[in-house]
Amino acid sequence: MSNTSTSQALLTLLGAKVGNLARDARIELGDVVISVERSQLKDLFQILRHDTQLAFDFFVSVTAVDWMDQRSERFELVYHLMSSAHLYRLRVKVCLPEEKPEIESAVALWPGADFMERECWDMYGIVFKGHPDLRRILMYEEFVGHPLRKDYPLQGKQPRIPLRAPEVQNTARDMLRPTLVQINRRAGAGSSPAGGASNSR
What CATH number does residue 86 fall under? Predict the structure, then answer.
């Protein structure tokens, strides 16, 4: 089955399975794309994961888009899912407001979402409720703000923090090294025979 026919078959199947949950469903750049209200996302994910005709068992990725000043809801989460049994590929989009951008975590259904949700939190400030360990993954804990937001100041200064561990002295100058072997030295130069190591310091 070709990619086009596979996507068309998935679009038809989704219409029967989750048509009441999807705000919009279409084929875009060869893949099926579903838009859903955030209040419906958890129910949609349950069906996508557990329905045997869908069986989306592979959480490919989740990322965010900052539509600052271009849409009424600033953030858009984009999930990429795949069914290894049926070779279906699916994008799920959900919009979040600028104030309290929160959504249910998908880690309980797809453990592979763990680090990706942490990255979305770190870079965009999206809160994934129910995540087992939602903390920064790229920036350090004391970092202020979320650097992929469009209003993050390009020349913003971060607070100074103490070193995690004391600095270690470079000990290279204290190392004792044996005298290098010299090749083809002239005889009578006051040194050991050619090819031998000198004991002089």
Answer: 3.30.460.80
More confidently predicted of 187 and 130 = 130
Taking residue 201's Cβ as centre, other Cβ atoms within 10 Å add up to 4
Q: Residue ranges of the alpha helices (H) in the chain?
A: 3-18, 41-50, 113-124
| Range(s) of the domain holding residue 29 | 3-151
pTM as predicted: 0.79
CB 89 within 8 A of CB 80: yes
Residue 39 domain-assigned? yes
Per-residue pLDDT at 194: 47
Residue 197 lies in a domain: no
Dihedral through CA 126, CA 102, CA 161, CA 138, nearest 10? -30
d(CA 149, CA 66): 6
- As a whole number of angstroms, the distance between CA 52 and CA 72 comes to 37
Residue 100 falls inside a structural domain? yes
In a domain, 173, yes or no: no
% of residues, the chain, pLDDT over 70? 81
Residue type, 198: S
Q: 180 and 173 in contact (C-beta within 8 Å)?
A: no
Q: Count of domains in the chain?
A: 1
